[in-house]
Amino acid sequence: MAKGSLFVISGPSGAGKGTVCAELIKRENIFLSISATTRNRRVGETEGVTYFYTTKEQFEEMIEKDMMLEYALYGGNYYGTPRAAVEKMLKEGKNVILEIEAQGALKVKEKMPEAILIFIVPPSVKELRDRLLKRGREDAAEIEKRIETAKWEISQSPKYNYVLVNDKLETCVADTVRIIDEANERQKIIERLLSEI
Length: 197
Fold this sequence. Notes:
Layout: E1 6-10, H1 17-24, E2 30-32, E3 36-37, E4 52-53, H2 56-64, E5 68-74, E6 77-82, H3 83-91, E7 95-99, H4 102-111, E8 116-121, H5 125-135, H6 140-156, E9 162-165, H7 169-196
Helix pairs in contact: 1-7, 5-6
């Protein structure tokens, strides 16, 4: 059985990366990696489905033992990707998607250079601002802060393997599926050739 491939999907808040990932995991053999966090579980969240919930001490021990592919501290809580869960799925031949921000994505690339990084952008900054306004979750000041963050994130996109414009969701999803299919085909060819040596 061919090993699965690791895909890291990032993009500015409002670019639609969460929606793209939700569409991808409806398909066969594509799995979203579950992050770990030290924040408290909210109503309706499930251990091992929404997040793996840990204490701050447990999380810091995982960092110390290099058990995290990437992690960050937000609002006093740690969030990150446990290495073991990802590696287990890849060995089982599953394609794994990490939906994480650019800083984390670049850390993953350092630890797993074979990871394929996909950066999703909106068609324009105006469209990004409109999408954030439509969501109605942030006030004007918060939206401007997110636009500023988006500038830095977009400046990191040349470090990714692919940059996709999410103008039409179906097209963006189809482009991502094509990238995943090509990676799977490459993996099969490499493993076949190595088995013949």
